[in-house]
Amino acid sequence: MPQEVFSICFMCTIRCPIRVEVENDEVKWIEGNPHVPGIEGALCAKGSAGIALLNDTERPQYPMIRVGARGAGEWRRATWEEALDYTAGKLKDIISRFGPQSVVLGERTNLNTHISKTFMRAIGSPNYFSHDALCKGSVNTAFRTLTGYTDAQVGVDYANCKHIVLYGRNIFESLEIKAINNLLTAMDKGAKLTYIDPRVTITASKADRYWMIRPGTDLALNYALMHVILKEGLHDKVYVRRWVKGLKDLE
C-alpha cells in the first residue's frame, strides 16, 4: 500500500511543497502539494524528475579517484577516509604554492551552504560563489535597490495585476509554479502581458505584445523607456518626490 509523504522539493532553490508516494521504501510518484494554494498539485519538469535523479544508475554511490588520463573514464573506488585525505593533500599543496586565495568553491545553494562558506573562511579564501551570481542574485539586487527588500520578502501579486511586463523573464518555461498559476489567473481576468526578449519563447507566444529586441540592446531600450516616461510625465511624481534621489541628474 503506497504511503503518502509531504515534503519540499530540492531540485532548485524555489523549494516547492510536494506530495510523494512511497511504496516499500521506494519513491513512486512526486507531484505538487494539492493542499497549498496556488500550487494545485502542479510541479515543474525539474521537480518531477526527482525520481530519475534518485534512481539514476550513473549517480556516484561512493568516492572514486581517477587512475587514468583525464577524459579516459578510468576510476577506482576509494573509502571516504582515503578520498578526504587525498583531497586535503591536494588543497594543502595548492595553498602552499599559490596561497589560499587561489582556491575557489562554487556550488548550488543548499542547506549546507553555511558549512561551505565557513570552510572557505577557515582556509583563508573569500572566493565562494553559488549559482545565485548568475540567477537570483540579479533579481534580489534589483528588488533591494527599488524596495529595500528581496523579491522573496516582497512577492509579486500577479493574480491582481492589470498589465504585466516581463523583461527577459521566460516565466512559462521556468520553475515557479505558483507564479505561473497566478499569472494565468490574471490573464483569465483580462490582464495584458507584454514580453521583451530576443528569443521567441513560449512566454512570447502567450503575450499580448511581444518586443523582439536585438541581443545587447537592453540598455538602449531602457534609456528609451526612461526618456519617454520622464518627457511625458508618466511617472508617479508624489512617489518620486518622497523616495527617489538623483532624478534631476538623470533628467
From TrEMBL:
GO terms for cellular component: cell envelope. Residues 2-58 form the 4Fe-4S Mo/W bis-MGD-type domain. Signal peptide: none annotated. Its cofactor is [4Fe-4S] cluster. Keywords: 4Fe-4S, Iron, Iron-sulfur, Metal-binding, Oxidoreductase. Pfam families: Molybdop_Fe4S4 (PF04879), Molybdopterin (PF00384). SUPFAM superfamilies: Formate dehydrogenase/DMSO reductase, domains 1-3. It is found in: Cell envelope. GO terms for molecular function: 4 iron, 4 sulfur cluster binding; metal ion binding; oxidoreductase activity. Belongs to the prokaryotic molybdopterin-containing oxidoreductase family. This is Molybdopterin oxidoreductase. The lineage of its organism: Bacteria, Pseudomonadati, Thermodesulfobacteriota, Desulfobaccia, Desulfobaccales.
